[in-house]
Design brief:
The protein has one domain. It is about 75% helix and about 0% strand.
Length: about 200
């Protein structure tokens, strides 16, 4: 039982940290880059909103409630990353991330739904005709959350080093990282099957 639990948690962790599917990591980078360690509660809440959205779409897909064309989802995933990265570029240094829980959190939840749909088909194969789908989903979601917290911690830690030791301004740090991510996702969008 515990072995199965760890298998699914680990599967969730590996899903996020998969080097071939780095879209998840890119999204987390642009989500976390505007923040500092002192904002950890807000960042944790954002990451959890993303996990919630991701898990919700997996639940809906696993129970056959939703079925979405894979090429549309694969096209939308880099679009979500591009939106957050551009939001960072245009609001860097303006404190937009300090606004009340609202648009940012709802959009993160929505983007989590889209990212979850991108993984739904593979996840359904993992589930097979298991009786305990919900338990598996929750174990997998725990793995995703753990991996996301690791990535976000690394982003905040790097930001801290760059801004304190190398004296980068927060605005420049956010701009540079977000611009790099924009550069990485544009080819993903242009090469998607949806546009082919």
């Amino acid at each position: 039982m515990l072995q199965n639990f760890w298998f699914h948690v680990e599967y969730g962790i590996n899903h996020v940290l998969d080097i071939n599917a780095y879209d998840h990591v890119l999204f987390l980078i642009v989500l976390a880059v505007p923040y500092l360690f002192r904002d950890w509660k807000r960042v944790l809440l954002l990451v959890t909103m993303f996990t919630l959205g991701h898990t919700l779409s997996l639940i809906l897909a696993s129970y056959g409630v939703v079925s979405v064309n894979a090429s549309i989802v694969e096209f939308l995933i880099p679009i979500t990353i591009l939106i957050v990265a551009l939001f960072n570029v245009f609001t860097a240094g303006k404190g937009a991330q300090k606004e009340k829980v609202g648009v940012l959190f709802l959009s993160t939840l929505f983007f989590g739904l889209i990212h979850g749909l991108g993984f739904a088909r593979e996840f359904r194969m993992l589930l097979g005709d298991s009786d305990s789908k919900l338990v598996l989903l929750l174990e997998f979601a725990l793995g995703i959350e753990i991996a996301q917290i690791i990535i976000v911690f690394l982003v905040l830690f790097l930001g801290y080093i760059v801004q304190t030791i190398f004296r980068f301004s927060k605005r420049d740090w956010v701009m540079v990282i977000s611009a790099v991510v924009v550069g990485l996702v544009i080819p993903m969008i242009l090469n998607s099957d949806f546009l082919a």
